[in-house]
Amino acid sequence: AKALKRNTWQFFTPALGEASRERFAMDVGLRRALEHDELVLHYQPQAEVASGRLFGAEALVRWTTREGEVVGPGRFIALAEEAGLIHAIGRWVLGEACRQAREWELAGLPLRVAVNLSGLQVAQGDIVADVRAALHESGLSPSRLELEITEGFMIGHADEGLARLHDLHRLGVALSVDDFGTGYSSLAYLKRLPVQTLKVDRSFLDDVPGDPAGETLVAAIHSLAEKLELEVVAEGVERPEQLAFLQRLGCRYYQGELLGEPLAAEAFARRWTRASAL
Ligand code: C2E
Ligand code: CA
Ligand code: CA
Ligand code: CA
């Protein structure tokens, strides 16, 4: 992005701060990324704790710049939200993830693909039309698509957001709460959200097993989910001891580096096609 920055800086008065310049360069870069097909999805496997059987993959967006640098979503999603680009990016992600999942299904690698939604996509965009279009164009069955929302987005968008989630639920797609336990509204909204799955944030697993407080928290979330008849996906599982702990707990699904890191579609298929052909 350095060349780009040089080109854009000359339009600015010196008074403009470094941070604003950086953001402007990113904004310009992101628009170009969308136009020039520089976004790519990587897929991280999700499996059953008990059997190790693969059942899904989470689509995670990356931006490969002209200069060949791979920029992670942590560096551009928030900016895309501010710049109003998140709707276009989100539509691209939905379309591409559904297309890929359908292609894999036809090739004998049937998976449920999970797509991250920005709160703004739900609150301001026409998310229902976007999802419907992605399913229609790909031919993917709605039951093979899961949409991940974070708890935080419900703050401030409660009524409109909730109505959209119910619309999505009626389309037959699965909904999950991402980073569960890190937001403010978890418990209050849980009852009202039409979700089927809680993705337990990886921070809860940091000191598990071993730390009694950490273990108690994970067990409590698991039992809460059970009573509400929600599935649990434990995120960020890195060590065999963590997996063994989840097994003892009876937690259903997991995801993390222990199972597999996110891979580009081709590498993902190469790695997982044989493994899943049970
Ligand atoms: P997330 O949804 O919580 O995704 C999981 C993140 O944790 C991913 O980072 C993944 O690479 C990383 N991760 C997976 N397993 C492990 C592990 O065992 N240990 C550790 N330390 N990390 C692990 P990534 O791909 O950089 O994504 C960061 C965040 O960006 C995501 O967090 C999600 O909130 C957001 N994001 C990613 N793709 C999209 C997208 O298409 N749309 C939107 N709106 N947000 C996205
Ligand atoms: Ca492409
Ligand atoms: Ca996620
Ligand atoms: Ca997460």
Quick gist of this model?
This is Diguanylate cyclase (GGDEF)-like protein. It comes from Halomonas campaniensis. With 278 residues, this protein is α/β, with parallel strands linked by helices.
Structure description:
This protein has helices at 2-9, 18-35, 77-82, 86-106, 119-123, 127-138, 158-171, 186-190, 212-227, 240-249, 265-276, and strands at residues 39-48, 54-64, 70-71, 112-116, 145-150, 174-180, 197-200, 231-234, 253-255, 263-264. An eight-stranded mixed β-barrel has the order 1-2-4-5-6-7-8-9, surrounded by five helices. The chain contains eleven helices and ten strands. The chain starts with a helix and ends with a helix. The chain is globular. Helix 8 (186-190) links the parallel strand 6 (174-180) and strand 7. Helix 4 (86-106) packs parallel to helix 6 (127-138) and helix 6 (127-138) runs parallel beside helix 7 (158-171). It has 278 residues and is α/β, with parallel strands linked by helices. Bound molecules: ligand C2E and calcium ion (CA) (3 copies).
End-to-end C-alpha gap: 44 Å
Oligomeric description of these chains: single chain
Q: For the report, how would you describe the main beta sheet?
A: 8 strands, mixed, barrel
Q: Strand arrangement, largest sheet?
A: 1-2-4-5-6-7-8-9
Shape: globular
Ligand types: ligand C2E, calcium ion
* pLDDT < 50 stretches: 1-5
What radius of gyration results from the CA coordinates?
Answer: 20 Å
The portion of residues forming beta strands comes to 15-25%
Organism: Halomonas campaniensis
Protein name: Diguanylate cyclase (GGDEF)-like protein
Domain EAL: 23-276
